[in-house]
Amino acid sequence: MNCDRVHDVLPLYLSGELRGEEMADVRLHLQECEHCAMAVRADRELDNALRSAMLEETADVSAVLDRVHQRIAAPWWKRRPQLISLRMAAVAIILVFALIGLPRVYVHQAQRNMALAAASDHYEDLVLLRHSDWEHKPEDVAHFMQAQFPQKQDLLSSITPAGASLEKVRLCKLRGTSYAHFVFRTGTVETSVYLLANPKDGASYQASHLRDGGHGLEVAGFSSADLTGMVVGQHSSVPTVEIAHRLSQTL
Amino acid sequence: MDLGEHSFFPAHQLAMPGNRASDFENVALPHAASLLRYALHLASEKSRAEDLVQETLFSAWRNFQQFKPGTNCKAWLFRILTNLHYKQIRRSGRRPEVHVEEQEARLAAPEKVSASQEMREAFARLTFEHQEVLQLAVIEGFEVREIAELLQVPQGTVMSRLSRARASLRAALMRGGNL
Questions:
Q1: How far is A75 from chain B (nearest CA, A)?
Q2: What pTM did the predictor assign?
Q3: Is A43 at the interface with chain B, CB within 8 A?
Q4: Which of B165, B9, B151 is nearest to B81 (CA)?
Q5: Which domains are seen in chain B, by residue range?
Q6: Residue whose C-alpha is closest to residue B81's, from B133, B150, B129
């Protein structure tokens, strides 16, 4: 081992980390090389002097230890909350809300918005009479049904409420989605049924009920295996929930 | 296990088994002074350094079950302290502080000083990195391997930094007339 190599490993030699053959080589070199031996002695003396000087001024930790003691001995609910723990708790809450709560809220809100749109459409079509593109004649209605619901041959009879008859049907847009809007009449009472085929991605409504859709109207949502829709009628005059439940079972 | 009336942490006040409380007291707390010395080097301000040590010890107490008996508790505590310090630095977005004025005022004191005082002053003139490796290796007695792990630098870097730090300290002492 030469002087340069000894110089390189000197920090390891001084800290006592050298082992085995390398340690023996350094010792042997130091016995033979007075220059390196002096360098080692000088570093050791420097280290000792530095250690003594720095440890002469002992750091007073009593105040810190008192505070640690008080903090540890305090009941857990009185301990100062850790910022990290608080952050982790906040992240956990947000994650739980995002994973469980948020989709439900989102679905609920989306469904509510669609129900409001249906009630508004019902009001515009049947009270304000804003549209004239209705199909009234049986052959036109049959054509409409064939075009919109080709797989459902008896759909019209299935969705007609007991004691009611179809008055008219048209295609409407509710918040950008196309629905078939059926209007059934029972005496002076009109009931709207909005229908669309279930999208292929499987998204559908949950059974729902909006008591106040505005203009005294209520809305009941439903979904069957193939169809999704809403029933809209005057509050307390049309049993929207019953009709929607029946449709969800029969369609 | 009865910790006795002189125990720092009476067992009935700790939410951990008595032997663990005793272990913490015997194994971790004796390093409080070393932690404070290093914290003073890192944080400069005494109050911040004390807060850092307090957080370190409290964190160590909460996670004491993670400490493996027989391993180097001092190195474990220093790791916690270093991590906490740099986390605080990152969180506050500030750079490590160096109180040059304070050092210069102290160094300019006209009265005759002892050899130890001269050594401390020469040490204070070193760069932050040279002070750091000398403090960890010489004063606190850590091995090169442990320092490399603590500072997250290669062992070769620690070794060369140590050699240069000793040379710089020697030069600073010579400028001060001590060597």
A1: 8
A2: 0.53
A3: yes
A4: B151
A5: 15-97 (1.10.1740.10), 100-179 (1.10.10.10)
A6: B150
pLDDT in tens, A2-52: 888 888 888 899 888 888 888 999 999 999 999 999 999 999 999 999 999
B109-142, pLDDT tens digit by residue?
A: 445 568 888 999 999 999 999 999 999 999 999 9
Nearest to A72 by CA among B119, B169, B28, B70: B28
Predicted complex: ipTM over 0.85: no
User: With an 8 Å Cβ cutoff, is A55 touching chain B?
Assistant: yes
| Interchain contact, B163 vs A56, CB within 8 Å | no
| Neighbour tally for B132: CB within 10 Å | 20
Interchain pair B143, A58: CB under 8 A: no
* Residues B50/B36, Cβ–Cβ less than 8 Å: yes
Closest CA to B117 of A180, A52, A172: A52
Which of B12, B24, B36, B179 is most worth mutating to test chain A (most A CB atoms within 10 A of its CB)? B36
